[in-house]
Design a protein that fits this description.
This protein has 22 helices and eight strands. It has 615 residues and is mainly α. The longest helix has 33 residues, at 472-504. The chain is flat, with a radius of gyration of 30 Å. The protein starts with 10 loop residues before the first helix and ends in a 12-residue tail after the last strand.
């Protein structure tokens, strides 16, 4: 290393921030002047011409501080191979060489658009260089398998960051969050890795000031490629901390880079199953699906920031916990990610049929059964939630020392608990209901089934184990946890469906006259029937006591006399009457108002008609 005292060099990290902060406007000016502009195209998200090559500023902001941090002489023993047991080279030196190669590879691609397989060859060569220098994941005892997987990891993460560079501030923001958590992970353990992480975070934080929505400059491939590489490399340092246990060794790197891994995995899988090329750009990424779901561009990016932040915090927790405590964080995170993936995969992006390769096959009916008749998926989800709730009950009931003793009891009794819970669920019929339309009666059925399941569990444990080495408090905690998890999962389904309906609702804006029972039923019909092409903005009601309140999330704006004030504010196209009161004067007043303001008027009613049975 060029300097010996790394702790005295933390001020260099600030240099990366100020370098990138100063250079980005200069790069943007030159890009605009030279015509290096990224113009909107069919398979890209941005809608206005924007300067690119922001990766030049990021690279300089990172490369200059790293050059003074890195010890390039530490690489020589790995080249001449003076011994079979050589210490790992300077992480700063290896990353500096790697990002330099990938920066120029990306720069060439930004200008002449080289073929994907050519870029892939370059990435594999860089990844092989890293593996040759001794850095590995250490996920397998076999050196060959672990080396191959390390190369796949580096290439995969490098491309993952290249793929998530699809919306303003997304790639830079996710990279900043990951680098910040890596800095926290290595501080006090691996000083050089912590310093490199801070340098990368500093440059990306500065670039975000120009790249956040609305972005004035994009980073281009010359930025996204080496950002992904550098973060994948830093994750390879985790086994060197000496604190990794059997679980954290595998999950910490994945959790820190969760967002790009989720996005790339989902996009690649759906594209392959839909007979589209995985290497071709498109508007089917996680961020795009969130926007189609109804979020704004900023909202989608911030949500992904939040996922990255929560996943990073979970990684820090797992890194400091034992292998028996870690599942308390890992399992909820994994279940949440799976549920999110299922939600987003159902959103239709392209006009052609999704998952076309799965259609018309002999196994298609089975897949349709699993996908559209969701009871099977609910059973699998409930299995995971029941097991996790029972595990978490032990974690909450016993401290760390006692938990190690009672963990064997947990393992022995878990099968019996699962059988009792599912037996109660099927007896009470919770899988016979239509999950998308839960009512208070359904909630009561769940509470009865959960209570019966707990009672059966206690009886079974008494019969088999005579309550030896068991705690009665476990079953109380377990009941509350299982109830919360199962009902919470159902509520999350309903919340997602309702939110998506409201966000994607489009059509003529209307006011609903009448905030009573009829107004509630009308609103539900509008939300569930896209063919109406109507978008309510709120209610008006003659009962002034209702003003300022909400009905199903929509505001009650005032009485009929206040409607003129809201007409222009909400750009109303029409009115819907939701009550059955046939007051002629009121109806005439509404008609006159609609005529004067060129609004359409419709009345909602529910009635039963007799059907003639005679032929």
């Amino acid at each position: 290393m060029f300097f010996k005292d790394i702790s005295a060099l933390y001020f260099i990290a600030f240099l990366s921030f100020f370098l990138c902060l100063a250079l980005t406007p200069l790069v943007r000016f030159l890009s605009t002047k030279k015509g290096w502009i990224d113009y909107p195209v069919k398979d890209r998200w941005h809608k206005k011409p924007t300067a690119f090559l922001g990766g030049v500023a990021i690279y300089i902001g990172i490369a200059i501080p790293l050059f003074f941090i890195a010890d390039f002489s530490s690489i020589l023993p790995h080249i001449i191979k003076t011994s079979n047991h050589i210490a790992l080279p300077s992480i700063g030196a290896v990353i500096w060489i790697g990002i330099t190669i990938l920066f120029f590879l990306g720069l060439i691609d930004d200008f002449i658009h080289i073929k994907p397989h050519t870029k892939l060859v370059g990435q594999i060569l860089v990844a092989s260089m890293v593996s040759f220098s001794g850095f590995r994941l250490h996920w397998f005892s076999s050196l060959t398998v672990d080396t191959i997987l390390t190369i796949v990891w580096i290439v995969g993460i490098t491309n993952a960051f290249n793929l998530i560079d699809n919306m303003d501030g997304l790639c830079a923001g996710i990279g900043f969050i990951a680098a910040s958590y890596l800095a926290l992970l290595y501080t006090g353990i691996l000083p050089e890795a912590a310093l490199v992480s801070v340098v990368i975070a500093g440059a990306l934080a500065a670039f975000l000031l120009y790249n956040s929505n609305p972005a004035s400059i994009f980073m281009g491939d010359c930025g996204s490629l080496f950002i992904g590489f550098s973060l994948s490399m830093l994750c390879l340092c985790y086994p060197e901390t000496g604190t990794a246990n059997l679980i954290s060794l595998y999950v910490v790197p994945i959790m820190i880079l969760m967002v790009p891994i989720i996005d790339t995995s989902m996009v690649t899988l759906i594209r392959i199953l839909s007979d589209r090329k995985a290497s071709v750009g498109g508007k089917d990424h996680t961020s795009h699906r969130l926007v189609l779901m109804g979020l704004s561009e900023k909202g989608a990016v911030v949500l992904l920031y939040g996922i990255g932040a929560v996943s990073g915090m979970s990684a820090l927790f797992v890194s400091k916990s034992d292998s028996l405590t870690s599942p308390a964080v890992i399992i909820p995170l994994v279940l949440s990610i799976i549920l999110m993936g299922i939600y987003l995969a159902q959103i239709r992006v392209y006009p052609e049929k999704e998952f076309s390769l799965l259609r018309g096959k002999s196994y298609t009916p089975i897949l349709m059964e699993l996908t559209y008749k969701r009871q099977f998926m609910l059973v699998i989800l409930d299995f995971c939630l029941i097991a996790f709730a029972y595990y978490l009950s032990y974690r909450l009931r016993f401290d760390s020392n006692e938990f190690f003793v009672y963990f064997k009891v947990f393992l022995h009794s878990l099968p019996a608990i699962i059988v009792c819970k599912f037996a109660a669920f099927f007896v009470m019929g919770i899988y016979r209901g239509v999950w998308g339309y839960m009512s208070t009666n359904d909630v009561l059925v769940y509470l009865k089934a959960l209570s019966l399941g707990s009672i059966m569990s206690v009886v079974t444990v008494i019969y088999i184990y005579r309550f030896e080495t068991f705690s009665k408090g476990i079953f109380v905690i377990d009941w509350f946890l299982t109830t919360g998890f199962l009902l919470g999962s159902r509520v999350s389904f309903l919340f997602f469906r309702d939110t998506m309906k409201r966000k994607i609702l489009a059509g003529k804006t209307v006011l609903i006259y009448g905030a009573g029972r009829g107004g509630e039923i009308l609103l539900r019909e509008i939300l569930n029937n896209k063919k109406l092409k109507i978008k309510p903005v709120g209610f008006i009601d003659d009962d002034e006591l209702k003003t300022g309140k909400t009905l199903q999330g929509y505001p009650i704006l005032g009485a009929f006399k206040d409607i003129g004030f809201h007409l222009n504010n909400y750009k109303i196209s029409g009115m819907l009457i939701s009550f059955n009161n046939k007051d002629p004067q009121k109806l005439e007043a509404i008609k006159d108002f609609c005529k004067a303001n060129h609004l359409f008027l419709k009345q909602f009613s529910i009635h039963l008609e007799d059907v003639t049975l005679e032929i």
